[in-house]
Design a protein that fits this description.
With 297 residues, the chain is mainly α. It contains 14 helices and two strands.
Length: 297
């Protein structure tokens, strides 16, 4: 059981990087961005291809980050410059990324067996794969949380946050909301691609289909984190995203341990997200008297 929990925690920390990226578009920008399903594969593909060609694994992470930022930039241009709806812009970019990722990989799956990864540094010092993954995951999410907390406290960061809440007010202040949307999408997909690169190096292969359903996984982690740990301030929200991702992975691991077929995981995740998103409505049905009193006040 301990091995199952530690394995779930290690995976949860890697997926938490993607969860933070999903949070930026879904909660901050108020955009349902499906580019995620293509950019996570792009990050994995770039990292795997770079490492197989002799590039340093840590440098491969930065290449993956840049690749994801490019994907986010493409979605941003489609949405702001060409005025294509955000949802459709993400779908178009995701479809285009399928062919791009296939060209990067050169095949459906690219193996990294017997090649150095970012985890090799820790394993060479006597750590096993799970421990090295947890340590590196903690370092990555801690650095990302600190950087994002600082960035979203700056003038441009506050403008991005305000764009999702009240774009008319932001435009009235002389801020170009197209720029803030594009920047938010760039940051989001950069983090998603970075997560893909970390996951690919952890599982020692990159697969063209690994992004399928990733947006649902990200949303599930966001919702679980918010429901269980609240939304007190921006720092606590960022931390709750990491905890939500870890808890989601623990739930999945326990459900599999109880005997659920792996083929049903996507369905289980979809139902979990649907229930979490419908909690406010369910509360109204369960506590109609209490809600009517609140409305009267």
């Amino acid at each position: 059981m301990l091995d199952i929990l530690t394995g779930a925690i290690s995976l949860g920390l890697l997926w938490a990087v993607m969860t933070i990226g999903v949070y930026i578009t879904y909660r901050i920008l108020d955009i349902a961005d499906l580019t995620v399903e293509g950019s996570i594969v792009m990050g994995a593909a770039i990292a795997a291809k770079a490492i197989s060609n002799g590039v340093n694994p840590f440098a491969a992470l930065f290449l993956a980050l840049f690749g994801g930022m490019t994907a986010g930039f493409a979605t941003g241009l489609l949405h702001t410059v060409l005025r294509i709806p955000a949802l459709l812009s993400g779908i178009l970019t995701m479809i285009g990324l399928y062919s791009i990722n296939l060209r990067i990989l050169g095949r459906a799956t690219l193996s990294l067996l017997k090649l150095d990864t970012v985890y090799t540094v820790f394993e060479s010092r006597g750590m096993d794969r799970t421990s090295s993954t947890i340590l590196l995951g903690l370092i990555c999410v801690s650095a990302i949380i600190c950087i994002l907390y600082w960035f979203f406290g700056t003038e441009i960061g506050c403008a991005i946050r305000a764009t999702g809440r009240n774009p008319q007010m932001v435009r009235a202040q002389g801020v170009n909301t197209n720029t803030t949307k594009i920047l938010g999408l760039i940051i989001s997909n950069g983090l998603v691609a970075l997560s893909g690169a970390l996951i690919a190096q952890n599982q020692t292969f990159a697969d063209l289909q690994m992004g399928t359903g990733s947006i649902v996984i990200g949303l599930a982690s966001v919702i679980i984190g918010e429901v269980l740990f609240g939304k007190k301030n921006f720092m606590s929200r960022l931390i709750s995203l990491v905890l939500g991702s870890v808890i989601y992975r623990i739930i999945i691991a326990l459900v599999l341990e109880l005997g659920m077929p792996a083929n049903d995981l996507k369905l289980f995740t979809a139902i979990t997200v649907a229930l979490a998103l419908s909690l406010p409505v369910l509360r109204e049905y369960l506590y109609p008297v209490k809600n009517s009193i609140k409305e009267g006040n």
